[in-house]
Amino acid sequence: MRLLAPVVAVALLGVAATTGCGRTGAVSGLSPAQAVQEAATKFGGQSLKFDLTGKITVDSSKVRGDAQSLDQLKSLGSGVTLSGHGEEENPQRVELVMTVNPGLDKPATVIGYDGNAYVALDGTHFADAGSVRAVTGGFGVTPGDVSNYLSNLGNVQDKGAEKMDGLDTEHYQVALDQSFLSKALSQASQGQSPNPFAGFIEQLIQFTGGTIDAWVNQADGSLDRTRIAVALGFDLDKLGQVFGGLGQGSSTPSGGTPGGSLGISLNVDLHPHDYGASVSITKPTVDPNAPKLPGGLNLFGQGA
Which among 39, 275, 50, 7 has a CA at the least distance from the CA of 143? Predict the structure, then answer.
C-alpha cells in the first residue's frame, strides 16, 4: 500500500474552466471553477467535522510471476476498505479515527498536530510517526492540503442542481487524465527539496480513467461532499528493474519478482459538515511502548 496514499492525495488535483448553467444562491454568477475554489477556501479555513470512506480494489489478471506471489496479489482482489470520521480545529490540527479492513483489528486514531503525526492503534497510547509529510512521501493529506488541491481545479463541468445529504447542492465534475499526475507531483514538491520519487512514480503509473466530483451547498457555497474515482495500472516490470528484480530489457520476472501490469481502482468519498463547530485537538503524549503499525501497512502510505 506504500504508493496508494499519494494517489489518494494527488487525485484531488485537476487541470481551465468551462461554464455551466442553472446555478442559484451563493454559487450564482460564479464559473464552475470559481465555485469549487471558494468552497475549498471555506473547507480549509475553519473548524469542521468530516466523514471519510474509501475502497481500493486490485486486478492481478495481467500479472506474471510465481504461484506464491500471484496468490498474495489475488488475496487483495476483494479490496481494502477504509472508513472514518474526524475533526479539524484548524488546517494544522486534525484528528481522524479510521478502520482499515483487512489490515487493522480495531479503529486507529491519527492526529496531525502542527505538522507532526501521531498514531494510536488502541485509541489511547500514541506513537510519534514524524512529520505528516515525511510519512506521506512529501504529499499533503490533511483537510488544509485538500483545500489547496481543490483550489487549483480546472476544466470543471457543471452537472446541474442535485439533492445531496438533504441539501440543495450544485454538482461539479472534473475528468482526470495522465497529464494531471505530473502537475500534482510538481505541486506536492513546491517549497521542499526535490522529491526523488516523483519521476519514478510517474513512470510506473498509467491512468485509464478518473473523475473528481464535488457537491457545493447552494445556500452558502460550502463544500458538502467530494468523491474521487481513479483507475490506473502499475508497471511491475519497471518496478522490478528499479529494484534489481529484472534485468534491463527483460520481459519475464526472475527471482520470484512479479511482472506485468497490476490494475488498481480507487474510490474515496469525503463529507465535511458542521462548519464552525467547537473543536479542540490536544497534542498527544508519546508512549514509547505504544503498539506499532503492522509491517507493510501505514495509514498514510509508507510501510512500517
Answer: 50
Q: Is residue 177 within 8 Å of residue 208, measured between CB atoms? A: no
190-194, long-range: CB < 8 A, 24+ apart:
192/133, 192/138
- Distant-in-sequence, close-in-space partners of 141: CB < 8 Å, separation ≥ 6: 5, 8, 9, 132, 300
The per-residue pLDDT for range 11-70, each reduced to its tens digit, is 433 322 333 344 567 888 899 988 988 888 888 778 999 998 888 888 888 888 766 666
Cell of 114: 502542527
> Rounded CA gap, 138 and 38, in Å?
26
Q: Rounded to an integer, what distance in angstroms lies between the CA atom of residue 119 and that of residue 133?
A: 14
Residue 134 sits at φ, ψ, to 5 deg, of -65, -40
pLDDT digits 0-9 by tens, 265-296? 888 888 999 999 999 999 999 999 998 766 54
Residue pair 81/94 in contact by the 8 Å Cβ criterion: no
Distance CA 114, CA 60 (A): 40
CB 87 within 8 A of CB 279: yes
Q: Which residues pair with 257 in a beta bridge?
A: none
- Note the maximum CA span of the chain: 62
pTM for the model: 0.76
Our CA angle for 196, 200, 104, nearest 5°, is 90
Residue 9 Cα to chain centre, angstroms: 3
Q: In the structure grid, which three cell numbers stand for residue 68, read together?
A: 506464491
Q: 102: which residues sit within 8 A by CB, 6+ positions away?
A: 80
Tell me what pLDDT residue 18 has.
32
Identify whether the C-beta of residue 299 lies closer than 8 Å to the C-beta of residue 108.
Answer: yes
Q: What is the residue-averaged pLDDT of the chain?
A: 75
**Is it the case that residue 214 has pLDDT exceeding 80?**
yes
